[in-house]
Design a protein that fits this description.
alpha/beta, Rossmann fold, 6-stranded mixed β-sheet, VapC45_PIN-like, VapC45 PIN like domain-containing protein
Length: 137
Amino acid sequence: MSQHEQPLKFFVDRSLGRVAVPRLLRVAGWNIITLAEHYGVPQDEQVADVEWIEQTAKLGWPVLMKDKKIRYRRAEIDAVSEHQARCYVISRGDLTSAEYAERFIRNREAIFRTASMAGPFIYAVHLDRLEPLYPRT
């Protein structure tokens, strides 16, 4: 990495929480910013998904989130497409904070590799692999 390049910064959506998952990712060496850190509290609870998707895409931040139904939410899919967002989503809602963080950490190599590619895309983050959700390949 040249001295002018910044390390890849990831945006962590409120769906993953403000404390535990971000802390675990930082301990593992990830450069992240949470929705709460970017917008402030309590404003973070009022920001529409389509708004932060647009802003993070413009800032070049890939997104880490949890959303069981992202592939069915037309407004969010349209925002991802229109703004060329790069998203990584865990579609399970029954994991602990440590298990959410572990999924991202175990897939770090694949996430960092694909995050260097142009969007738009959404990958599902499984325990041992990434699965393209949008666009379907």
